[in-house]
Design a protein that fits this description.
Strand content: 35-45%
Strand order of the largest sheet: 1-2-3
Bound molecules: zinc ion
Shape: elongated
Structural class: alpha+beta
Order of helices and strands: EEEHEEHH
Largest sheet: 3 strands, antiparallel
């Protein structure tokens, strides 16, 4: 979940968080604002092992790199 709803005392805000590295791109009062910033910031949703993750651009590059160099062992190693 890349946009987390948080409470701090009586304040409520939304945090834009990378699901992989935990990097926070910002805090927003408004959910819609967070969604727009998510697009601006270049977050993208990746399906990894059947789970959707929202990743920052750094982690996206890392994912693409991993995909490009994955071997059969990488693909099936996690199943056993
Ligand atoms: Zn990241």
């Amino acid at each position: 979940m890349a946009i987390e709803r948080r409470y701090e005392g009586r304040f409520r805000y939304y945090a834009l968080v990378c699901d992989h590295c935990g990097d926070e791109a910002g805090h927003f009062d408004d959910f819609q604002e967070a969604v727009e910033e998510k697009r601006r910031y270049g977050f993208k949703s990746f399906n990894t092992d059947g789970e959707w993750q929202d990743l920052c651009s750094d982690c996206q590059n890392m994912m693409e790199y991993k995909k490009g160099t994955a071997t059969a062992l990488d693909d099936f190693g996690g199943i056993v």
